UniProtKB/TrEMBL annotation:
SMART domains found in the cross-reference section: AAA
Topological relation to the membrane, as annotated: Multi-pass membrane protein
Species per Swiss-Prot/TrEMBL record: Thermocoleostomius sinensis A174
CDD domains: ABC_6TM_exporter_like (cd18565)
SUPFAM superfamilies per record: ABC transporter transmembrane region, P-loop containing nucleoside triphosphate hydrolases
Top-rank taxon, per record: Bacteria
GO CC terms in record: plasma membrane
Protein name per Swiss-Prot or TrEMBL: ABC transporter ATP-binding protein
Protein location: Cell membrane
Length: 610
């Protein structure tokens, strides 16, 4: 699809709006038709004044001069009324069409973006994607608001006036039409030259947005390292590149109108002089000459706006190209077709919370098997290699290992944020690639080490785990996560705005909100990726007591650096360089005198084994 013109791709996308597009186009054409009528009426009026009973209207049986002017007055009223009515109609239709298309396009682009694999986002900046979803779509909206109507009306003007000239004055019509081919050739030539320059403009604004988004997100780091001046210099470089890219486009777009005006001047002057001489010689009627003089302006002067319209058109096409490329990006991770079996009876891991948390929607055991799994972010550099491990249903297993050993990657593979290159991962005996993706992810609750909170209230962030849950459900989840007490002490309690990414809260508070969010989801499988890494020892102990209850009869995967948090796990897997090197319970691993035993001695303060 990328080799097709952006306008064709846009037309294919907006097929459901074709009737509206044709109606808006028809109103634009009719408006221009009635807009061109007044100069004709002026010519007829001049003809009545000069010819009187021999005028054009007299040939239609209206010989009385007064009646002729009454007819002209009525026609003028009709023409102006129709022109106003169709102007209102096309303005409303085009603008509503622009709003509808940009609304649908933004939603479709964002929806498609959400379905793309995690690798796509890791290879691109947030600011660049924001530029597509916001700036590029807004650029297209501006063109549909005004530019589409302008192009249609220019074409209508050329066709109607050109035809009229050859009908009423073929001897001088060629002079009026002579500049048209030059203007059109110049317009297409400028368009061809402008297209790559505006594509570069959109690319530069994307980079600029990336820089701004990145800096605003890292404002604390900038302040702490006192790099404000350094960041201003970097922003200046990006902004200068954007300015220079725009200047390259402006050099051409600004030259268009003056050049077109010179060409128009030649045609207008030729018609004015030659047509006047023909009229004096009696070979051209005075009324016809008056009409020609008025109409030549209506024909040629609007063409001076063609440069601005083409400028807007090229910007819109560059933006459309970027948006359509996003929509055409293939989805690498596809959903399976097998749904998870819905739970006929509400499930609660422990009866005391049966009525306090929303029920689990799926009747699954939660048994996970990884069989000879290999995965690499980059070809030839496997992060997980030939890994096999068993996670029994309803049990708590822990995964430990040094940084970069592949622990967090396993979580992403279980959620199918990435797909494995070889091997298989099964849930209750079914390959997770065959399961419906939404069902798989709903069945897993994930508390990430890198906690993300949305700009909103504390309650809204907890309810994100189950949007239809009640306030009582949310408070129960907060109490289990040891978050209720600190939330109550916030200025507005559960209605306190936590700020973008939860910046108004401490790291430990953010982590407890994230745990509450996962608890409220009440999934059959719970993944804790360093879930207590940002809390103090007292809070950690309280959360551990809560998690001991939450993890009962629920498949739990705990990834941790602090071995004290997972010593009671049913089974502990030790990973190094993407491979499983040790496994067993806490006591078994200590007796093996291997990697786990050494890590335990380091963290517990005992002397290292020699």
């Amino acid at each position: 699809m990328e080799d097709k013109h952006p306008l064709i791709r846009l037309f294919h996308y907006g097929h459901s709006y074709r009737s509206q597009i044709w109606l808006a186009a028809l109103c634009s054409i009719l408006n221009k038709f009635f807009d061109l009528a007044p100069p004709v009426l002026i010519g007829v009026a001049v003809d009545v004044v000069v010819q009187q009973q021999d005028s054009l209207l007299a040939r239609f049986g209206i010989e009385d001069v007064q009646q002729q002017f009454i007819v002209l007055a009525v026609l003028t009223f009709i023409v102006w009324s129709c022109e106003s009515a169709f102007q209102y109609a096309y303005a409303r239709l085009w603008r509503n069409l622009a709003q509808s298309i940009q609304h649908d396009l933004r939603l479709d682009a964002y929806a498609h973006l959400q379905n793309l694999e995690l690798e796509y986002f890791e290879a691109r900046s947030t600011g660049g994607l924001m530029a597509i979803l916001n700036d590029d779509i807004n650029q297209l909206e501006r063109f549909l608001d005004f530019g589409a109507n302008e192009i249609l009306q220019v074409l209508t003007t050329v066709l109607l006036i050109g035809t009229g000239f050859f009908v009423i004055a073929p001897r001088v019509a060629w002079m009026a039409m002579l500049p048209i081919p030059l203007i059109l050739w110049g317009s297409f030539a400028f368009q061809k030259l402008l297209a790559p320059r505006y594509a570069d403009v959109r690319e530069k604004v994307s980079l600029l947005n990336s820089r701004l988004s990145n800096n605003l997100g890292g404002i604390v780091t900038i302040k702490s390292f006192v790099t404000e001046a350094y960041e201003i210099d970097r922003l200046r470089t990006e902004s200068d590149a954007y300015r220079y890219s725009n200047q390259r486009a402006i050099v051409l777009s600004a030259a268009f109108v003056p050049l077109i005006r010179i060409i128009i001047l030649v045609g207008f002057t030729a018609l004015l002089v030659y047509g006047g001489l023909e009229t004096v010689a009696g070979r051209l009627a005075v009324g016809t000459y008056s009409t020609l003089v008025f109409m030549i302006q209506r024909l040629l002067w609007p063409l001076t706006r063609l440069g601005e319209t083409l400028d807007q058109y090229q910007r819109a096409m560059a933006s459309t190209h970027r948006v359509m490329n996003l929509l055409d990006t293939p989805i690498a991770i596809h959903s399976g077709t097998i749904p998870l079996v819905e739970n006929p009876t509400p499930f609660s891991p422990f009866p005391s919370l049966h009525s306090l948390l929303p029920p689990n929607p799926y009747a699954i055991r939660g048994e996970l098997n990884l069989d000879r799994v290999t995965f690499a972010y980059r070809e030839g550099l496997p992060v997980v290699e030939n890994l096999s491990l068993h996670i029994p249903a309803g049990k708590t297993i822990a995964i430990v290992g040094s940084t970069g050993s592949g622990k967090s990657t396993l979580v992403k593979l279980l959620l199918r944020l990435y797909d494995i290159q070889s091997g298989s991962i099964t849930l209750d005996g079914i390959d997770i690639r065959q399961l419906q993706l939404a069902d798989l992810r709903r069945a897993i609750g994930w508390v990430s080490q890198d906690v993300f909170l949305f700009h909103g209230t504390a309650l809204e962030n907890i309810l994100y785990g189950h949007p239809t849950a009640t306030l009582t459900n949310a408070i129960t989840a907060a109490k289990i996560a040891e978050a209720h007490e600190f939330i109550e002490q916030l200025p507005q309690g559960y209605d306190t705005i936590v700020g973008e990414r939860g910046q108004k809260l401490s790291g430990g508070q953010r982590q407890r909100l994230a745990i509450a969010r996962a608890i409220l989801k009440n999934p059959p499988i719970l993944i804790l990726d360093e879930a207590t890494s940002a809390v103090d020892n007292e809070t950690e102990a309280a959360i551990q007591r809560s998690l001991e209850k939450i993890t009962q009869n629920r498949t739990t995967i705990a990834i941790a650096h602090r071995l004290s948090t997972i010593r009671n796990a049913d089974r502990i897997y030790v990973m190094e360089h993407g491979k499983l090197v040790e496994q067993g319970c806490h006591e078994d691993l200590l007796t093996q005198q291997g990697i786990y035993a050494n890590l335990w001695r380091v963290q517990s303060g005992e002397r290292l084994a020699t």
